[in-house]
């Protein structure tokens, strides 16, 4: 199936966010997407969508081909075909057909990750031989870096008579020339993704089992590293990694974060994806990491990797790190001899006018305590505990809290197993609030309910039960698992 109009509209709207001055020129395109049955079909007149590939070498020159039918010197490109699921796929197919450059020899430029670098409007003369009247092409131009070790261009003689590499200031299209200059495109194949190789210093590596969504995500149903792609708001790849970790597993409190290597993998669309690999240390229980994407996190040693559905490149990466950083034999720990990071979580102890306590039923697919009742809770980010409580109450249940009404009620310091990462749970009461509990995050919580504290549900997070008992007894502190 060709790209859906909704897919194309999303690209246009994102493009207009970056280039608002072109809205008037592209308004007819938006109308075509709303009303046209097939905006990418060459039979759709008086206008339809085409795609081009802007291939840039490290010396900052851009590939141009000599088009046989028109005599024009242009970037490789053409019409969308039925097998192209996205416009990006069209651009990749065209540059492969016309110039012999496979997708694996290309990667997206860091300066144009969000979609086409340019959308140009080309006036096409009538072609009586093909039965085509004069019309327009809305040409979506995607920018790629050519890898330094890529093979030479191999032209398709049926459509192309020659090729040349032009410097940026001699790019044939004026609009594209301006966009490339404004974006300060370098042509260097820089990493645009970041991943984290987490180890415990004793030979164990933390891997992430991804959701099994073939065709929608990279490496579906496979074990992999945590991480993801750079987004426009990320100033650096370290920012990318920290944002991804906060989204995927906010319960991970990592130490000794540092860059390790740059690896190349093949993305879902066949493009080369350079990834900046970082390493970090953690020694906790994966089930306490508050996993929010994927299926699970688990520890593995290098000798177990061959039993997993895992990319060979990831196996090689883990083995290389293990060889360069031999597992240390851990001496017996003396209590208090070493500082250890504690995961800090906040919990809302809310009573109604009948003295009942509000609990939420966690989603059955939750990595932590599935199908189990729990207080409204969350992990602290770069914020105070009270600020975290106020944020979580609004995000999860639509409740508005005033900091002046928040008071400390109890603390639980717990460790799930010997050597696991400690957690400090802070419990707060509020004297008043605004709003009625809503299911704002149904993928995490499926119900809110008020419970009599003398008749709490059997399926209740154990430390939550202890905390509620401590609050009712007037105790300020509970220890568990030490």
Layout of secondary structure:
Blueprint: H1 5-18, H2 23-35, E1 47-56, E2 61-67, E3 73-74, E4 77-79, H3 87-99, E5 106-108, E6 118-124, E7 135-146, E8 160-167, H4 174-183, E9 193-199, E10 205-209, E11 223-224, E12 226-229, H5 237-248, E13 255-266, E14 272-281, E15 296-300, H6 312-324, E16 343-349, E17 357-362, E18 373-374, E19 376-379, H7 385-397, E20 406-414, E21 423-430, E22 445-451, H8 462-473, E23 477-480
Parallel strand pairs: 1-7, 9-14, 16-21, 20-23
Antiparallel strand pairs: 1-4, 2-3, 2-8, 5-7, 6-7, 9-10, 9-12, 10-11, 10-15, 13-14, 16-19, 17-18, 17-22, 20-21
Helix pairs in contact: 1-2
Question: Could you characterize what this model shows?
Answer:
- The termini are far apart.
- α1 packs antiparallel against α2.
- The radius of gyration is 28 Å and the shape is elongated.
- Helices cover 21% and strands 30% of the residues.
- Strands 9, 10, 11, 12, 13, 14 and 15 form a seven-stranded mixed sheet that branches. Strands 1, 4, 5, 6 and 7 form a five-stranded mixed sheet that branches. A five-stranded mixed sheet has the order 19-16-21-20-23, sandwiched between helices.
- Residues 330-337 have low confidence and may be disordered.
- The protein contains eight helices and 23 strands.
- The longest helix has 14 residues, at 5-18.
- The chain folds into three domains: 5-183, Nucleoside Triphosphate Pyrophosphohydrolase (Alpha-Beta Complex), CATH 3.90.79; 193-324, Nucleoside Triphosphate Pyrophosphohydrolase; 343-480, Nucleoside Triphosphate Pyrophosphohydrolase, CATH 3.90.79.10.
- With 482 residues, it is α+β, with helices and mostly antiparallel strands.
- GO terms for molecular function: hydrolase activity.
- This is ADP-ribose pyrophosphatase YjhB, NUDIX family.
- Pfam families: NUDIX (PF00293).
- Its cofactor is Mg(2+).
- Keywords: Hydrolase.
């Amino acid at each position: 199936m060709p790209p859906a109009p909704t897919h194309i509209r999303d690209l246009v709207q994102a493009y207009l966010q970056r280039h608002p001055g072109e809205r008037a020129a592209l308004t007819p395109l938006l109308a075509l997407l709303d009303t046209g049955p097939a905006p990418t079909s060459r039979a759709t007149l008086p206008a339809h969508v085409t795609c081009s590939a802007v291939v840039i070498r490290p010396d900052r020159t851009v590939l141009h081909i000599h088009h046989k039918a028109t005599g024009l010197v242009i970037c490789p490109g053409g019409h969308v075909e039925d097998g192209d699921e996205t416009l990006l796929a069209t651009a990749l197919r065209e540059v492969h057909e016309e110039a012999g450059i496979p997708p694996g020899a290309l990667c997206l430029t860091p300066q144009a990750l969000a979609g086409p670098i340019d959308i140009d409007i080309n006036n096409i003369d009538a072609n009586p031989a093909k039965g085509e009247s004069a019309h327009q092409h809305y040409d979506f131009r995607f920018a790629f870096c050519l890898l330094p070790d890529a093979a030479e261009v191999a032209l398709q003689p049926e459509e192309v008579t020659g090729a040349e590499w032009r410097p940026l200031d001699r790019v044939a299209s004026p609009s594209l020339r301006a966009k490339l200059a404004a974006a300060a495109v370098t042509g260097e194949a820089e990493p645009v993704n970041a991943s984290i190789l987490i180890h415990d210093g004793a030979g164990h590596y933390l891997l992430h089992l991804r959701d099994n969504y073939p065709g929608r995500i990279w490496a579906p149903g496979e074990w992999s590293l945590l991480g993801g792609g750079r987004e426009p708001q990320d100033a650096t790849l370290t920012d990318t990694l920290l944002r991804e970790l906060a989204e995927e597993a906010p319960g991970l409190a990592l130490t000794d974060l540092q860059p390790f290597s740059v690896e190349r993998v093949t993305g879902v669309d066949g493009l080369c994806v350079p990834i900046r690999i970082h390493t970090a240390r953690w020694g906790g229980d994966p089930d306490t990491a508050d996993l929010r994407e994927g299926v699970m996190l688990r520890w593995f040693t290098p000798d177990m990797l061959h039993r997993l559905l895992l990319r060979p490149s990831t196996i090689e990466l883990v083995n290389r790190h293990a060889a360069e950083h031999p597992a240390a034999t851990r001496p017996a720990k003396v209590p208090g001899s070493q500082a250890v990071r504690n995961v800090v979580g906040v919990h809302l102890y809310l009573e109604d006018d009948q003295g009942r306590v509000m609990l939420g039923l966690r989603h059955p697919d939750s990595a932590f305590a599935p199908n189990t009742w729990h207080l409204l809770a969350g992990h602290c980010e770069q914020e105070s505990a009270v600020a975290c409580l106020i944020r979580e109450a609004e995000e999860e249940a639509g409740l508005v809290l005033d900091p002046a009404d928040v008071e400390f009620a109890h603390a639980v310091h717990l460790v799930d197993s010997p050597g696991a990462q400690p957690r400090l749970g802070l419990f707060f009461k509020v004297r008043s609030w605004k709003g009625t509990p809503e299911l704002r995050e149904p993928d995490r919580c499926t119900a809110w309910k008020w419970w009599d504290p003398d008749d709490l549900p059997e399926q209740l997070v154990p430390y939550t039960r202890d905390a509620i008992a401590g609050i009712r007894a007037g105790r300020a502190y509970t220890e568990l698992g030490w």
